Amino acid sequence: MRFSRSISARRAILTSFVASVGFIAACDTTAGFRPDEVFWGFITLRGLEVSGAQRLEPTALFFRGTVSQLPSSALKPDSCFGTQAFVPPANSFTNVTFLDAGAALSVQLGSQLSQLPRTLDGTGKTVYALPSPGTFAYAPGDSFNVSVPGAPGGFPQAAVRARTAEAFVLDPVTINLAAPLQLRWNAAADTNSAMILSLRWTPAGGGANFTQEIRCAYRDDGRDSIKVAQFSAWADTTNIRRTIAATRLRTSAVPMAQGGALQVISTFEYPRPIQ
Q1: Which residues have CB under 8 Å from 140's CB, separation 6+?
Q2: What is the pLDDT of residues 134-153, one digit of tens each?
Q3: Are 149 and 164 in contact (CB under 8 A)?
Q4: Is 234 exposed, middle or buried (0-12, 13-18, 19+ CB in 10 A)?
Q5: β-strands 193-202, 104-109: how paired?
Q6: pTM, entire model
Q7: What is the gyration radius of the CA atoms in the chain, in angstroms?
Q8: Residue whose C-alpha is closest to residue 265's, from 253, 255, 275
Q9: Residue 143: closest CA among 167, 109, 189, 106
């Protein structure tokens, strides 16, 4: 690791950082409108593998509320959490007011122009997504433009441009309990992305799912390491199963005049998620 922080400061930064894998981990709000409850729009661009081809799954939602954690690829703490229960990333929102942002978002990826129509998900909140199958072909690293038409009394008109996260491969690791675990991957082309790593495992006597993990966040420069004391539980030979999941993260945000921001969260995962 390149530098150290106090445990509490490092944990606060890393919590916000790794939250981006699951979009946003939490929103602290109170019921009713307050002046500090501002406009937030989040567009997620998730790379998938479908029948051996690279596909992009764009989704978006808009709301008024107070966000406690804002994902950002600018945060690169080069730090790891200790062992914790593995919980698959998921969105979690409480007491926010979801907003209409218009009938459909205009999405341009290279020469391809698509529409993300407004719809309701299973919980009744307004979301924007492609019709089934919900993905389109793309090349990781392509630029991406989104135009939000806006709606009266809802989310304002806005636009944002971003770059999708580039593809990468995580090299096989060699486990040696007498030395740090060396990590190597294809470095990003610039400094505007970051790498999130998850060591997941199931201890002896566990069930069919991963139950433990160690999460890390790194500069996306292609190399880092994990101390023996941090990865030894994952490397235990009595574990039923173990794996390493890595995610390249890119974020881009446009401040809103009314407060808040319109943010793009783009990820490329290794191994690739399969739809």
Answers
A1: 47, 54, 164, 165, 166, 167, 268
A2: 898 999 999 999 999 999 99
A3: no
A4: buried
A5: unpaired
A6: 0.84
A7: 19
A8: 253
A9: 109
